[in-house]
């Protein structure tokens, strides 16, 4: 496994590997590091589907707000490299901020519509930062396939919109959220949680399961408002949980819906704070 | 010469030509059509420097304001194809608006800083439209070199900034402005001019030459304000000319300058209206 910090070396390495393997495909897993089994599952899928697997580890300052956790975002490169290796990565791209942004960027890739609600509303500028760095990484790696976890469902919607609008020549592969045994969605930020918060954090996935059950029990008779109440009631059962949002929107357009319609995909998306830690989770439903 | 209207066919054609020619380079000349000798010179340069030459003809609605000349922008595809062929194009990409924008784009590539002044100020949203469509075209054509005329010096600065910031894997080749015998910069919009306007339109290039002479005559002793007066006096000598802007800025950052400094590149950039027709011209100076 190659570990590369410079853009020009990365381009050279990928070019060379492509030249060695005619008809090679490059699978790319962009991450912010502090890898967990969710990331490993993306790498394993890329390993199965592509001839060359590239992982990037880059905590992108552009997608963090001024009062967010850029500085304290967890980092553990040694462990990341071990996970990357065992999951089958060929190349790990691990640039410094000065390599990705030698000067402050004047160019921003902005996606409207899908970014208006959820994390787009809670974290102004976040998705501009995501879309911009992902565009940069795509231009550097030139992958055929890029793998993203559905825990960040809005991020997937934003990237897919951007790829469609800008004719970026690759395929986005959305991958299922991996969960701890008790249902908590895997996240690098779970490490922030105290024991008590960690116990209560299961209300996010519980709330999504409650919604599933309510939908099944009431076959089409349930309203959006009733469904939201099912979800928020469950979250409120955790004394430390503070809801940032609990929204029911169409997917992937992420627009409000007045009723649950047969055959329409929708998402229940949650962001819940435990102390300073903000967790997200979601489930996509198909009536 | 191939004439292609669909993105997928264009990609296929370029892929095939690349496969036929190992180490092939693709030179790309994006235009809005109604080609003149300026465009032809870009194609000829691409022909000299690259193995595959792609021309695009697309009047991009996204870069026109609501009261601008999108509808009446001159079009003559038959003549364009003849010029393209004789200048050595291999492929002409000539998409409809519905091919480039099957749905209204939600993704905008925005460049700040270099777009604040000149045409960026006079034509709000113009460079968002330019940067977005150029990004799309780059993602479709995947050129190694892209050729742009320096008549649109701010456009070149915007595209170069964008390529730098987004790590777009290609080289921008800025090319000299071509001029009519009397000095008028070639432009598809010159066709809008009445005979009288056409005669007076030479004041743009005259003003730039006057500035050159004033700079030479006064070796460093001339102020920015004096230089601006030289330029605006000459333009004012044409009764039909209405100045949109006549600015002296650093190049390529396009920032205001308080004095002319030894060794600092700067641009005198002009936009002048004759009736409904808006002409631009510029010259870059190096003291």
TrEMBL record, chains A, B:
Organism: Paenibacillus cremeus
Pfam families, sorted: Pantoate_ligase
Reaction(s) catalysed (UniProt annotation): (R)-pantoate + beta-alanine + ATP = (R)-pantothenate + AMP + diphosphate + H(+)
Gene Ontology terms: biological process: pantothenate biosynthetic process
Protein's recorded name: Pantothenate synthetase
Catalytic residues identified in the record: 39 (proton donor)
Residues where ATP binds: 32-39, 149-152, 178, 186-189
Lineage top rank: taxon: Bacteria
Gene Ontology cellular component list: cytosol
Listed InterPro entries: Cyt_trans-like, Pantoate_ligase, Pantoate_ligase_C, Rossmann-like_a/b/a_fold
Pathway: Cofactor biosynthesis; (R)-pantothenate biosynthesis; (R)-pantothenate from (R)-pantoate and beta-alanine: step 1/1
Family statement drawn from the similarity comment of this UniProt entry: Belongs to the pantothenate synthetase family.
Protein's UniProt keywords contain Ligase: yes
Gene3D superfamilies: HUPs, Pantoate-beta-alanine ligase, C-terminal domain
Annotated gene: panC
Task performed by this protein: Catalyzes the condensation of pantoate with beta-alanine in an ATP-dependent reaction via a pantoyl-adenylate intermediate.
Classification via PANTHER family: CYTIDYLATE KINASE/PANTOATE-BETA-ALANINE LIGASE, PANTOATE--BETA-ALANINE LIGASE
A GO term for molecular function: pantoate-beta-alanine ligase activity
Compartment(s) where it occurs, according to its Swiss-Prot or TrEMBL record: Cytoplasm
Enzyme Commission numbers on file: 6.3.2.1
Binding positions for beta-alanine per the UniProt entry: 63
UniProt subunit comment: Homodimer.
Other known facts: The reaction proceeds by a bi uni uni bi ping pong mechanism.
Keywords: ATP-binding, Cytoplasm, Ligase, Nucleotide-binding, Pantothenate biosynthesis
Residues that, per the record, bind (R)-pantoate: 63, 155
């Amino acid at each position: 496994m190659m570990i590369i910090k410079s853009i020009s070396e990365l381009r050279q390495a990928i070019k060379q590997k492509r030249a060695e393997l005619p008809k090679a495909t490059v699978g790319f897993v962009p991450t912010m590091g502090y890898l967990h089994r969710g990331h490993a599952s993306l790498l394993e899928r890329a390993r199965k589907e592509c001839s060359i697997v590239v992982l990037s580890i880059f905590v992108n300052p552009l997608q963090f707000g001024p009062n967010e956790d850029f500085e304290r975002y967890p980092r553990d490169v040694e462990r990341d490299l071990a996970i990357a290796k065992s999951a089958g990565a060929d190349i790990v791209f691990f640039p410094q901020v000065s390599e990705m942004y030698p000067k402050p960027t004047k160019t921003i890739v902005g996606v409207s519509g899908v970014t208006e609600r959820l994390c787009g509303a809670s974290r102004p500028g976040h998705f501009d930062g995501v879309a911009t760095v992902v565009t940069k990484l795509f231009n550097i790696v030139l992958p055929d396939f890029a793998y993203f976890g559905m825990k960040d469902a809005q991020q997937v919607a934003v990237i897919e919109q951007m790829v469609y609008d800008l004719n970026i020549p690759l395929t986005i592969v959305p991958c299922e959220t991996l969960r701890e045994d008790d249902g908590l969605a895997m996240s690098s930020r779970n490490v922030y949680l105290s024991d008590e918060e960690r116990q209560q954090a299961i209300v996010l996935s519980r709330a999504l399961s409650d919604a599933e059950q309510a939908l099944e029990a009431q076959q089409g008779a349930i309203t959006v408002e009733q469904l939201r109440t099912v979800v928020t009631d469950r979250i409120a059962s955790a004394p430390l949980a503070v809801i940032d949002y609990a929204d029911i929107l169409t997917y992937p357009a992420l627009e409000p819906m007045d009723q649950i319609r047969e055959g329409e995909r929708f998402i229940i998306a949650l962001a819940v704070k435990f102390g300073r830690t903000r967790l997200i989770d979601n489930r996509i439903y198909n009536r």
